[in-house]
Amino acid sequence: MEPLRVTVWNEYLHELEHEVVGNLYPDGIHGALANAVQEHHPTAEVTTATLRQPDHGLSQALLERSDVLVWWGHKAHAEVSDAWAEAVQREVLAGMGLVVLHSGHFCKPFKRVMGTHCSLKWREADEKERLWNLQPAHPIMDGIPEMFELAQEEMYGERFDVPEPDELLMLSWFQGGEVFRSLCTWHRGHGRGVYFRPGHETYPSYHHPYVRRIVANACGWARRRVRIDAAKAPMTAALEPVPNEGKEHV
Ligand code: ZN
Question: Which of 135, 200, 214, 249 is 20 to 30 A (C-alpha) from 32?
């Protein structure tokens, strides 16, 4: 198999605007995520792109050669152009994997790919998150124990307004009592989508070894297998004789 080609997209605003976030992620959240992917896929080609670069750091050529696009965004979802959100959706339908993290639940590409509001409940109260592994045999759960904890995270609570996941891999419990479907997969067209919950910018979640491993495993699972543009519905010639080949369509 060809080396895995991953593009990590990050809004990259909190790190520059808030000292606590900049100190946690001196190379940006995209830097930490790219490093996690590279750590677990040493031969992978990992590229990063950020919001304020021209065209948000994206190009059609970059999308076409990306096996997976990882997405972190929070406060500036509206700044992502509809045209690029549509281009990402098209590429997912053609076979690219999309791994959406944390507050990326509200990003334009994810909402387009899901077709629902993708809303949820939230609370920022430095509370404990306990993540339960529901599918230990799944490739994304490789190396992940039955349960692990993040000492402090933002709470996300149900109902998460997404279509029924094809697979539910992890369930989170929060100190305040809520639960959340925190690791879900979907198939869309020829592509695969993953949502993984942890990663609020003021906590060191993307330095946690299990969180990093899950992000990397998700890239391996969601990686592109094909690139097929299925946008058109072509009329096709019969393989066997049929009564009226070429009949005028009315
Ligand atoms: Zn957050």
Answer: 135
